[in-house]
């Protein structure tokens, strides 16, 4: 069987017009229907005349019986074998287009012709004669091409995957078949390109074959069409590898420490097994780049600076804890004869105890947020009450007082529930700053605030101005009016000391976990010994207790953070963000890492902020939790573990954004994706058996080769851009609305039936069309 396509569209149209002029409209209507099969026989054409004597509206077509012979012997048909006739591919395509565009026929008639032809060839498919069986298969694909294009593409791709390169005749036969089908079905274009390449190969033209097949090769250097992996002849594969090597920059196993690739186009570049510590890839185009098994992060000389920074924070925290302990003890002793001072000391101790409990129970970030609102409330109430004469309108005073009460209530509730962490992000900066300053001015300055010393404190190093006047007024003013400010400074400063110790350990954790533990425990031991060896006034039991409480709580928070306790993850995030900003670690800031590969790479201390991480592979990436990932999907511990371990069986991903993840070949059996955004996600060959895909976003999602048997599908956003080629699915469950209730309905409904290979995609398309039509 040979298919010709020698006519240009204009010539084909004139040939059809000539046929109509000679035989009339009724003959042309028979030609419309005769164009549907690939090959005609007199029996097949007569059967078409018998079965399609009316249009879809029931109007008679009035085609005479002798039109069968007139058509077969006309210029529209060519005899290609004994009693076998075939139309030119261009003529056939034009007639089918007219059939679909005619309101009397349309898609309804196409479906009727498809069902008719499938029934007609059923016996021939069971024939023992290979020639008859091949003929029937071709007719079957022609019948399915318009009604089930995905299934047809899958079956054709599967047939090509089983072809023998040593059988040129079979390859050319399949190419001829595709040339006829590819005209009405654009989905076959890739398969047609593959067939042309293979045909060129069997004719010995390797250059032409390479030119065709290189258009189809994916990132994995393979060809995959409709979910079927198609073989590439070895000589062509060698040419493709050579072309890829020329096009791809190779940095594999190179020492690239400190090198700058900023803004460069490094698409598909190979950096595997290389040392990229300190390298700058900011704003680079790294689409499809391979960073597998690379070593990234800080260079060696920055490690020393990192340890010094860690020790400095620990030093500051310990010094502040010593001074705070001594100061509060002195305040308590002095306060026995001084009511304002006594109130201050007891208030700070109680507040510190509450803060310590909240930090342990609810985490550091949420605590900071709650403290922020609490302080705001205290300041607002103080302002509304003590500054009443400064306001001319009672409404303003009431509004400020109410705002203060709301802030206190929300702050207290947030502390109890562990929320308000969003406030902790920016409140931390101020808290750490005050904490470090607290360790320097410590008990000396606050004692002066409370008037314990009888001399005026001057800020001689600060230039004259409003800020200097405010400081001197606050620090030298009346004791009663300064107590509120001193309590706030002490409270925030104490939390800052705890944070300083915790972040110091987190910084050291970038080097190693042992370094983090050393900084924490040795810092605590060092300050305890320093306290013992200090002056008598600094070695009392009260000072020791406060020191151990503050520094110990800092070590506790730091240790919980580096052990991945999510309540303290903010500490590690803050430390990593600071390192990526100030130190010369590996930077991918703003880089395009779409489809890049970081499998088995060491990425601690790496800056991925503002990078495009669409479909980036993180399989078994090491210490990704110690990388700065900005606001990307890697910020979520649950998603991070999913992309690293690639195990999601039975997990709940409801309402999460998994947009743009690389989840190819991931085990997602029985996982729940209710309301989940899976747009632009790579789910090739993923196992989604029994998954709940309810109200799931699947725009431009690649489900090629995925397994969806037993999945629940309801109200999904499946569009024409969703790739469903080669989906493996025996059955699914979808909602079935009845007058009484909503039930889950199995498809196919008969429990003895399953979807045939390649059939699922066509079912989904038809199902979505039916939903939109209602």
Structure description:
The protein is mainly α. It contains 25 helices and eight strands. It has helices at residues 9-23, 25-34, 42-51, 67-72, 89-101, 106-120, 122-125, 130-145, 149-161, 168-181, 189-202, 206-213, 234-247, 300-335, 339-362, 364-386, 394-417, 421-449, 466-476, 479-511, 513-533, 541-562, 569-582, 637-645, 759-773, and strands spanning 77-81, 84-87, 223-225, 228-230, 692-694, 712-714, 732-737, 742-747. A two-stranded antiparallel sheet has the order 1-2.
In whole angstroms, how far apart are the ends?
44 Å
Percent helix:
40-55%
The radius of gyration computed from the alpha-carbon positions, rounded to a whole number of angstroms, is: 38 Å
What spatial order of strands do you see in the largest sheet? Answer: 1-2
Strand content: under 5%
Number of helices: 25
The count of β-strands is 8
Average pLDDT rating:
76
Shape: elongated
How would a textbook summarize the main sheet? 2 strands, antiparallel
